[in-house]
């Protein structure tokens, strides 16, 4: 079998999962962002696919397979051909017709249903596929977490009404929770952002990246070590140093309540807001010079006022139109919230030239006082609680103090626009917000009629009227699951040598049901006829009992075999050694490091008991 293990971690890997997948012989890079899944990896992926298929069968989802090479005409219909961005692979055939490599398949599935389904009586329809997708990432990185070709499960549902969509959306949420639970993952379902998919309601399923500071959770101790306390401090420090040298994988920050069920992506997270109803005497508006003070912190220090008493004024272009955004000085704008609220296709910070046109001043001195009524001013809801605030005076080097809402400036709308902070109270009041890094492994969307309207996908309803089909979209990152699994199940295996030295190495501790094989069967000496005979006998018995067995019959030193076994991380190792003639073998459980010697006749029952 092709299992090209390496003695050292690859130097170009930045996250643990990438390093281990390469070192343990699971994957190999073919070109930047494009990988081959070698036999071990492919077996893990197939097991995960089978878990998905079983759960989707339960909710009536039917598997099909669409082409990866797509005509650009469909994407031109939906409008995404020009707006998707540079990640879209565009190509032409010999007839000079435009094609793309599919990064996702909303348009394809919409066209299939549009051309085949004409009546509401044929709905709902629930279909999915598992196939490679293609996105021309500018900087592919972190192994399988950010690639140019990746394996994805994408599902689509089609409905005649929103009640039906809601029911299927909930079915998929349950199915996803079952899938990731069966895969042994620590995950959270969080409020997500639809982004380029065009979804309204959406939930992301995030695999939590483990805390690097809880060292004991990363260690597996050999039978020679009874407690972590036995390990010398310098060895533990070296392990900590190596552990923290890897980047924390996860493209998103997850916000969750420590005392409730609330969880959201940082881009969507909010916290409890209570409007301050206490009265503050408004002071007289005054313009003061603030030379060389441009940032909120500089202005706060210069005027000797708390940052919380300042208001920052930002300018954005929403689909080309200027929008002024106000936040309390200690808050940061959440551009995803702003873009979603505005319903903008494009949102970007304005240039300093734009600021001069709107405010008559440069950055550092902008404020809401005296702006034209034609300018839309949106404020975060916290701004409404700030009395006698400091704002820019729209004159370089000057600020107003003691500004107050309605008297000195107007606001069109108050909405939640700020980025939530760790330690704030959860929006439901149940606990405080905690932050963690997470890897997105699944995402479900209520698309509504975003694609059916643009692509004229309609059915006749019960009254004979042509109405747009209502859609949902449901994705799982299949190949990135490999990385997510290793981020959570990578371990450091520590053992004590006969000389009393301590050594450690990285290992994989696969969750039950996803390891490429159940048992690693290792004859120490392939020239020992008794050992080989017993190995053949045990292999047959294990397979008859339903175990998947990888037998290492290479003519290699025992140390090489054991090192590879520790590295690739199969749940159970059975060593056939010097006591083979007596029918005695050694059984080692990967997850605990527990090792025992047993008679061959007890092997099956022992593995079932120890590996529960």
Automatic annotation (TrEMBL):
GO terms for cellular component: cytosol. It is found in: Cytoplasm. Homodimer. Its EC number is 6.1.1.15. This is Proline--tRNA ligase. Residues 43-498 form the Aminoacyl-transfer RNA synthetases class-II family profile domain. The lineage of its organism: Bacteria, Bacillati, Bacillota, Bacilli, Lactobacillales. CDD domains: ProRS-INS, ProRS_anticodon_short, ProRS_core_prok. GO terms for biological process: prolyl-tRNA aminoacylation. Consists of three domains: the N-terminal catalytic domain, the editing domain and the C-terminal anticodon-binding domain. Belongs to the class-II aminoacyl-tRNA synthetase family. ProS type 1 subfamily. It is an enzyme of class 6 (ligase). It comes from Floricoccus tropicus. Its main location: cytoplasm. One of its GO terms (molecular function) is proline-tRNA ligase activity. It catalyses: tRNA(Pro) + L-proline + ATP = L-prolyl-tRNA(Pro) + AMP + diphosphate. It comes from the Bacteria. The gene is proS. Pfam families: HGTP_anticodon, tRNA-synt_2b, tRNA_edit. Keywords: Aminoacyl-tRNA synthetase, ATP-binding, Cytoplasm, Ligase, Nucleotide-binding, Protein biosynthesis. Catalyzes the attachment of proline to tRNA(Pro) in a two-step reaction: proline is first activated by ATP to form Pro-AMP and then transferred to the acceptor end of tRNA(Pro). As ProRS can inadvertently accommodate and process non-cognate amino acids such as alanine and cysteine, to avoid such errors it has two additional distinct editing activities against alanine. One activity is designated as 'pretransfer' editing and involves the tRNA(Pro)-independent hydrolysis of activated Ala-AMP.
């Amino acid at each position: 079998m092709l299992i090209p293990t390496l003695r050292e971690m690859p130097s170009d890997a930045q996250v643990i999962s990438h390093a281990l997948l390469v070192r343990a012989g699971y994957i190999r890079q073919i070109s930047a962002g494009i990988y081959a899944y070698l036999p071990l990896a492919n077996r893990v992926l197939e097991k995960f696919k089978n878990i998905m298929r079983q759960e989707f069968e339960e909710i009536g989802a039917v598997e099909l397979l669409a082409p990866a090479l797509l005509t650009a005409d469909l994407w031109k219909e939906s409008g995404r051909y020009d707006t998707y961005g540079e990640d879209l692979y565009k190509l032409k055939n010999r007839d000079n017709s435009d094609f793309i490599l599919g990064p996702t398949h909303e348009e394809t599935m919409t066209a299939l249903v549009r051309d085949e389904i004409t009546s509401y009586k044929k709905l709902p329809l629930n279909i999915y596929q598992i196939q490679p997708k293609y996105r021309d990432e500018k900087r592919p990185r972190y192994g399988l977490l950010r690639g140019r070709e990746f394996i994805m499960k994408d599902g689509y549902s089609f409905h005649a009404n929103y009640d039906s969509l809601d029911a299927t959306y909930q079915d998929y949420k349950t199915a996803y929770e079952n899938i990731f639970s069966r895969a042994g993952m620590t995950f959270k379902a969080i409020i997500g952002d639809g982004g380029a998919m065009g979804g309204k309601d959406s939930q992301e399923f995030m695999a939590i990246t483990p805390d690097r500071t809880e060292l004991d959770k990363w260690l597996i101790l050999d039978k020679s070590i009874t407690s972590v306390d036995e390990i010398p401090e310098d060895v533990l420090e070296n392990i900590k140093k190596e552990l923290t040298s890897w980047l924390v994988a996860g493209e998103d920050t997850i916000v969750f309540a420590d005392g409730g069920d609330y969880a959201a992506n940082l881009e969507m997270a909010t916290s409890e807001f209570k409007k301050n109803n206490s009265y503050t005497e408004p002071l007289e508006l005054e313009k003061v010079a603030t030379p060389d003070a441009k940032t909120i912190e500089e202005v706060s220090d210069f005027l000797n006022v708390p940052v919380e008493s300042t208001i920052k004024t930002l300018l954005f272009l929403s689909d080309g139109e200027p929008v002024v955004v106000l936040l309390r000085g200690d808050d940061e704008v959440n551009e995803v919230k702003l873009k979603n609220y505005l319903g903008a296709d494009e949102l970007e910070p304005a240039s300093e030239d734009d600021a001069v046109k709107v405010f008559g001043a440069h950055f550092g001195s902008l404020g809401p006082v005296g702006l034209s009524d034609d300018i839309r001013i949106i404020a975060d809801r916290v701004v409404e609680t700030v009395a006698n605030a400091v704002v820019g005076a729209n004159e370089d080097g000057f600020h107003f103090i003691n500004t107050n809402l309605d008297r000195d400036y107007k606001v069109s709308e108050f909405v939640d626009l700020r980025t939530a902070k760790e330690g704030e109270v959860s929006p439901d009041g149940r606990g405080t917000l905690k932050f963690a890094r997470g890897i997105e492994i699944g995402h479900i969307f209520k698309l509504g009629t975003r694609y059916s309207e643009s692509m004229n996908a309609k059915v006749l309803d019960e009254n004979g009227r042509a109405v747009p089909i209502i859609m949902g979209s449901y994705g799982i990152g299949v190949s990135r699951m490999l990385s997510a699994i290793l981020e959570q199940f990578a371990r450091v295996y520590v053992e004590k040598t006969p000389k009393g030295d301590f050594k450690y190495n990285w290992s994989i501790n696969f969750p039950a049901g996803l390891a490429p094989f159940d048992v690693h069967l290792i004859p120490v000496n392939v020239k020992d006829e008794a050992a080989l005979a017993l190995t053949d006998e045990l292999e047959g018995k294990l397979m008859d009992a339903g175990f998947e067995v990888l037998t290492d019959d290479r003519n290699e030193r025992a140390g090489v075999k054991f090192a590879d076994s520790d590295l690739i991380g199969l749940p159970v190792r059975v060593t056939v050694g010097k006591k083979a003639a007596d029918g005695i073998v050694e059984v080692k459980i990967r997850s605990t490091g527990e090792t025992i010697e047993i008679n061959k006749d007890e092997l099956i029952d022992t593995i079932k008991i120890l590996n529960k």
